[in-house]
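B., you asked whether I could sanity-check this one before it goes into the benchmark set. Here's the sequence:
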Amino acid sequence: MELSGIRSVEDLDVAGRTVFVRVDFNVPIRDGEITDDARIRAALPTIEHLRAQGAKLVLGSHLGRPKGQRHDHLSLVPVGARLAELLDTEVVVPDDSVGDGVKKLVKDLGPGGIVLLENLRFHTAEKKGDAVFANQLASLAEYYVNDAFGTAHRAHASTYTMAGFFDDKHRAAGFLIKKELDYLGPLMTSPEKPYVGILGGAKVSDKIKVIENLLGRLDTLLIGGAMAYTFLAAQGISTGRSLVEADRIELATDLLRSASARGTRVLLPVDHVTAAAIDSDETRVTDTASIARDEAGFDIGPKTIALYRDAIASARTVIWNGPLGVFEREPFSTGTFSIAEALADSDATVVVGGGDSAAALRQSGRADDVAHVSTGGGASLEFLEGAELPGIAALRAGHRFA
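And here's what the prediction gave me:
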C-alpha cells in the first residue's frame, strides 16, 4: 500500500477555507487526566501546517467505546484542553459533533481557529458508516483530511463514508498517515535485508494472516508471548499449563512447515520464566524449552533473550508486533523490555506496530531510538496482513464509494 493516487495535505489550497481533519485522539484518560498524549502530539504537524496556511479547522475523533451513548468520562473536553496547551491557542469543544450549534461555531471561526467536535461515537451512526451522519459532518467543511491512521482499518462515517462527499481535489492524507505508509509500505515491498520479524501476543489466531503474509519476505521470525506455546506444542514440547490454542496446533505445524519451504527461519523460546499462576510472586527459569506440568510460561527466559538479541543485531530491517510476555507484571517484563532495548540499540530500521508493543517501548524510555512507532494497533496489523485499509482507499483519486 502506498500514497500513489492520494493527495497530500501539502497539495491543498486552504487559505481562508474550512478543513475537516479526522484525527485519532483516542487517548487513555484516568480521573479526567490524560495519561499518554502521544496520539495528540502525532497529529500536531498536520494541524500546525493547516493553521499556518490560514485554514479554519474542524477536528473529529472518537474516544473509547461509548456505544452510541453520552458518557462524561468519554468526553473529548480534556483532550481539547491538552491540545490547547500544546498549540498555545483556544480550542473550542462543543457539546455535540453535529447540529445547528456546531455549524454556528464553525462559521464563526477565524483563520487558524479550531473546533474539536465532541466524541463522534456518541452517535451510533459513526460506527455504522451512516451516510446521513457523514453528510452532516461533511457539510461543516470544504476540504477533508484524514490523519487518523489508528482508525484507517474501519469503514466508519468519519473515516470512510464522509470522504465520498468531497471530490478528489478536496480530500487528502495528513502527515501522520503519510509517515505511516512511508515506513510500513517498504516492509511489504522492499525491506533491506536481513529482515527480521518479531511477533508476540496471546494468540496465534490473531496473527495468522500476518505470519502467512510475511513468510518468504522475512529472513528470520522470532516468536514470543503466549502464542509461542502453541508453536512449541506443535513440535511436541511440553508446555505445562501455559496458554495453548489446541485447535490451532495443526495450523502452527503447517505454518512452521511453510516457513521452512519459503526460506524463513523461525526461532522459538528455548527457555521460559514460569510460575504456578500469573499472580504468583514465585517464579522459575526453565533450563530448556520444556515446561513442567504444574507450571505455565509467562515470559521468555535469558537464553531466549540472548538468542533473539543476536538475531536483531544482524538485522537491517525489523518489524515488531506484540509483547514477548506478560510485561504488565514486573516478574514477567524482562523479556519484552530486553527486546525493546535491543531494538533501540540496533542499527536496523525498526518499525514497531501494535498498541502493547508501542506501550512497552515507551515504558522502556527508548521510543525515540527506533525509526517508527506506529500509532495504529489494529490498522498496522491489518496492513501487515496485506489488507487495503478503507480509510486509505477512500483518499485515492477515483475511488468508488459503495
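One thing to flag: Residues 191-384 form a domain with the Rossmann fold fold (CATH 3.40.50.1260). Otherwise nothing jumped out at me.
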